[in-house]
Amino acid sequence: MMNGKIALSAMVAGVLFCTTFTSAAAEEVVIKVWARADRSGPLRAGNLVTAGDTLNKFLTAAGTDKRVKIELNETNAKGYDDDALDLLKAFAVDKGPDIFVLAHEWTGAFAEAGYALNLEDHINKNPELYGDIIGPLWQSVSYKGARYAVPQDSEVRMYFLNNDKLRKLGKTDKEIAALPAKVDAGEFTAYDLCDLAGQAVQKGVVKYGILHRPNAGPDFQMLTESFGLVPYDKEAAKLQASKTALKDFFTWVKYCVDKKALSATNTSMSWDAIEQASFAKEEALAFFHGVWRVTDQTKAWNLKGKDDYQRKITWINAPAGKKGGKPSNLSHPIAYAVSAKSKNKDLAAYIVA
Question: What is the three-class DSSP state of 286?
C-alpha cells in the first residue's frame, strides 16, 4: 500500500507539471464536479471532495506546492435521466464540469457525444488503483470496447421473501433454506413463485403476494431477462428487443395477476403504501426491489444481526421463466466520468481513481 502511495504521488506530480492551469492562482487547480443530490448515495459527491483532500496530501509528499480545489455543483434533478439531460445541455454550451456522476446506462451517450473521456490508457497505466473493481462491473461503463467511466458503487436486486409467511403456508425451515439454490438451479421457476404467492393470498396469509415498484425502472429488465431477453447487441452497440421473450414475460405477468400473486393495482400504489405493506404491516409474501432495503427491513422488524435477519428474510434471484432455465439478477451502477473537454483531464482522472 505504501509503495502504491509513493507511486501515485510521483505520477500526480508529473501530471501537475504538465497541466494547464485555469485558475487565477497558479498554485491552485479548480476541478469542477457535477453530481445529483441522491439520498440513496449521499457520499457520491462527497467522495470526490475527500479524494481532492487526499490528492493534496500526495502533492505535499511529492514536494510540489500545487493544490486542487473541488468546486461542487450538486443538482436537484428528480432522477438520473433528468440529470443526464441537463448535463448534456451544459456540455453543449461549453459549461460542462471536469468530473461528473452518471447512471451507467448513459455512458454510451456521453461517449458518443464526445463528452466522456476514454479512460483505457489511464486505467491500464494504473492497475494498482483499479485492481479491486470487480471485472463484470466494467461492462456497465464500456462503450464499443472501451471504458469511459469508473463504477462508483453497485447493488443487487432480488425478491425478499417473508419467512414467517412461508412458515404459515406450511414450509419448513429446511425447505425455506433450500429455496435460493433451487432458484439458481432452474428448478423453482417464475411460475412456481407466482403459484406460491397466489396461494398465500388465497389462503388469507397475506393481502399481497408480490409487491414491486409502482413506476418504471430497471427491476423489470431483470425479469424480462429471465424469459430470455438479451437487451443489448454488443457488436452493434445498440439496444435490441425480442418479441418472443417479451410475449413470454407478459404472459407470465397475466398468469400472476390471475393467480392473485400480483396485484392489478400495484402500479397505482404510492411508494409509501408499498413500503408499509411490505415492511411494517407485513402484508406481502414477497417484495421485489434492491439490497438497500435491508436497512428498512432491519428497522421495521427490529432485527439484530445476520442470524436474526436470515430467520426473517430469504433472498432469491429472479427465477427462470421455465424449468432448467437461468435465473437473472441485475445491478445499476452509478459511475464517475471525466470530461473529454476538461483542461485538467489527467488530474481529474486521478481524483476519480
Answer: strand
pLDDT in tens, 30-64: 999 999 998 778 889 999 999 999 999 988 888 88
The separation between the first and the last C-alpha atoms of the chain, rounded to the nearest angstrom, is 15
- The domain in which residue 86 lies consists of 2-154+333-352
Query: What radius of gyration, in Å, describes the C-alpha atoms of the chain?
Result: 24
User: How far apart are alpha carbons 272 and 210 in whole angstroms?
Assistant: 16
Query: What DSSP character marks residue 46?
Result: H
Among 126, 124, 266, residue whose Cα is nearest residue 201: 266
Residue 323 lies in a domain: no
Read off the C-alpha cell for 35.
Answer: 453530481
Smallest Cα–Cα separation from 15: which of 149, 94, 125, 118? 125
C-alpha dihedral sign at 32, 36, 38, 41: negative
Residue 75 contacts residue 34 (beta carbons within 8 Å): yes
- Whether 187 and 121 share a structural domain: no
DSSP state of 247: H
| In contact, 253 and 262? CB cutoff 8 Å | yes
In a domain, 133, yes or no: yes
CA-to-CA distance for 278 and 283, rounded, in angstroms? Answer: 6
The pTM score is 0.80
